[in-house]
Amino acid sequence: MAIRQRILPLALSAFAVVYLWQARLIELDPWSAAEAINARTLPIVYGVILLVLGLVLSVRPGPPGEAAAERHRRWVALPLHAAVILGFAALIPYAGLWIAAAALLLGCLLVAGERRLPVLALAPAATAGAAWLLIAVVLDVYVDPGLWFG
User: Fold this and answer.
1) In angstroms, how far apart are the furthest CA atoms of the chain?
2) More confident residue, 90 or 76
3) In b/e form, how buried is each residue of 126-144, taking b as 16+ CB within 10 angstroms?
4) What span, in angstroms and rounded, lies between the C-alpha atoms of 115 and 110?
């Protein structure tokens, strides 16, 4: 695999290292500092998983005979996915988490090339609905509905 194909996985690994470094700086309350599971645990687990994935992706061989058109399509999809994620972050304060999550899933499905209308309609709605049911109804955790609905 050429060095150009290793740049993104190595950048992902570098991001994971910075993320882990920042996760270690999370301040703990005196009573949770001695516990095995605390506010740092989940970010550190995520950082380790991200680092392992980045390193595995950087050492694996590239796909055999990948066409230039396929490489171009993947490079076009990357900024589109990033734009969808940024749109999700911008939409949360206005539409609330649940509608923004459904929009995020819909956008990612569209960028990935999904064109079946039942999948485009049901997958985001069912996922956001199930998350709302679990978090807001079952666990009774308040989630701000956003400026448009609050």
Assistant:
1) 56
2) 90
3) eebeeebeeeeeeeeeeee
4) 7
pTM value > 0.85: no
- Token couple for 40: 């740092």
**How far apart are alpha carbons 10 and 3 in whole angstroms?**
10
50's tokens: 């991200």
Rounded mean pLDDT of the chain? 90
AA letter at 37: I
Helices H, strands E: what count in the chain?
Answer: 5, 0
Tokens of 73: 């399509």
Annotate 111-129 with DSSP letters as a single string. HHT---HHHHHHHHHHHHH
What does the pLDDT look like over 117-137, one tens digit per residue? 999 999 999 999 999 999 999
Task: Using CB atoms within 10 Å of the CB of residue 67, give its burial: 0 to 12 exposed, 13 to 18 middle, 19+ buried.
Answer: exposed
Q: How confident is the model at residue 28 (pLDDT cuts 50, 70, 90)?
A: confident
